[in-house]
Specification:
By secondary structure, the chain is of the alpha+beta class. The chain has 12 helices and 15 strands. The strands form 2 sheets. The protein has a 13-stranded antiparallel β-sheet with strand order 2-1-11-12-13-14-9-3-8-7-6-5-4. A two-stranded antiparallel sheet has the order 10-15. Helix 10 packs across helix 11.
Length: 436
């Protein structure tokens, strides 16, 4: 299949020029040189310590000639193939049915059977089949049900408290081929079948945003090091055979982690994701690279992304923020990193979720208790529309009245007043308001 490529890279700058390229550190030298050497095959490189760690049983060294750095590493051509959400983990606030205690006993029996058999096959009334797994997820989620489209982790609580009592991880294939809304409809049916459960609220725990490009010749380790501008100093790289396979920015447990990797190699290795070829409209997996940014709950909260509606409305602005302020690839044409020209390839990456239309999103590093009033209003508005949709309400006033009724059932006036006083004391704002 012939590809029509565009976006040639008109890099015009002094090849000898190499400035520091980290926003957070002015001591890191990132200009590639022959003396620095290149990692051996199957090795992991830590950019901060510059130490090389073996990652595979492959001690073959990879020689680096001085002529390799005679020219600036670059990407000359690239073609955008695909953009979207590749991973989505959700915290579900579920209220189980009146017979939940009896259902718990049944689930415990099945868990015991699953331990003996290494997994128990179960068919639900919806027609979907799942594997009841022997384990769970941490201390909070005792039961693990693996469906073809997602993994469901269930806690013992009959109703949620301040945190979710059900955890959901939707598979990549489901997200790409069926979509979030379809997956949530299936999950709602399964939760009702498992224990008469009703989903009251959905909280986003993790999301991976990504874009795929066809890049002849791929992306080199030197290219990333030479052009990167990042707020996070932690990075590492994995090599396979004679080239870069994955470059990470941020640690595994970081609130934000960026990955630039050879997606074609990953698809070929597993053999279970060959359906990506159809999405790419490609006949091959060669030279297909992915830029992927993973956000965990702490970062999502800082960006004011709590529910599905938040993600839908803020996804584009979020991508713009992350690919501009948190990490970017820029030409070393200015001593001040914030004034450097965005690399043409990275401009294409930034535009994968839509060009910047002026709708910006800010990351609030302060504790949630000191977030501005607009943050709470945005969250309340998003939750109200979700509640209205859940109850089939379209009128705003009707939705507010319904919310009032539900809140009155949830707690009384004295309980609400006590909660307000406690939070005012925690925030140090008790003396600023009316006398409580």
């Amino acid at each position: 299949m012939k590809r029509k490529l565009s976006h040639k890279n008109p890099e015009k700058h002094d090849e000898r020029e190499c400035f520091e390229n980290s926003v957070s550190s002015k001591n890191e030298t990132t200009c590639p040189s022959a003396a620095a050497g290149e990692p051996a095959d199957g090795q992991v490189v830590d950019h901060v310590s510059t130490k090389i760690y073996h990652n595979q049983n492959n001690d073959k060294s990879m020689a680096l000639s001085a002529t390799r750095h005679a020219t600036t590493p670059s990407i000359q051509e690239f073609q955008h193939l695909l953009s979207g959400i590749d991973s989505l983990d959700l915290g579900l606030f579920v209220t189980w049915g009146a017979n939940w205690k009896q259902r718990l006993k049944i689930l415990d029996k099945k868990k015991l059977q699953a331990r003996k058999k290494g997994g128990l096959l179960i068919s639900l009334p919806s027609g979907r089949t799942c594997i009841f797994k022997p384990g769970g997820k941490g201390e909070n989620y005792r039961f693990h049900l693996q469906f073809e489209a997602y993994n469901l982790f269930i806690g013992k609580a009959a109703k949620p408290g301040s945190s979710p009592n059900v955890y959901l991880s939707i598979n990549s294939k489901t997200l790409w081929l069926d979509g979030i809304e379809t997956a949530l409809s299936w999950i709602a049916e399964d939760i009702k079948a498992i224990g008469g459960g009703t989903i009251k609220f959905i909280q986003i725990s993790r999301v991976d945003l990504c874009c795929d490009f066809f890049i002849p010749g791929g992306i080199s380790y030197e290219f990333i090091r030479y052009h990167k501008v990042t707020r996070n100093k932690k990075s590492r790289a994995i090599f396979g055979k004679d080239k870069l396979e994955t470059n990470y920015v941020g640690s595994v447990k970081s609130p934000i982690e960026l990955r630039v990797y050879d997606k074609g190699v990953e698809v070929e290795k597993g053999g279970t994701k060959l359906w990506f070829i159809d999405l790419w409209k490609s006949e091959s997996t060669e030279n297909i690279w992915r830029v992927e940014i993973q956000l965990r709950r702490p970062a999502l909260k800082q960006f004011g992304i709590n529910c599905i509606d938040d993600l839908k409305t803020k996804k584009n602005a979020l991508w713009q923020n992350l690919t501009t302020r948190w990490f970017s690839l820029r030409l070393p044409d200015n001593e001040k990193v914030e004034r450097r020209t965005i690399h043409p390839f990275w401009q294409a990456v930034q535009n994968c979720f839509g060009q910047n239309t002026g709708n910006e999103i800010e990351r609030i590093y302060r504790p949630e208790t000191t977030a501005p009033e607009d943050w709470y209003l945005s969250h309340i508005d998003g939750c109200l529309s979700s509640l209205a949709a859940l109850r089939g309400i379209k009128n705003r006033d009707t939705a507010i009245n319904e919310l009032q009724k539900l809140l009155n059932k949830r707690n009384n006036e004295q309980e609400f007043e006590t909660a307000c006083i406690k939070k005012a004391i925690q925030r140090g704002t008790l003396s600023k308001g009316d006398e409580l």
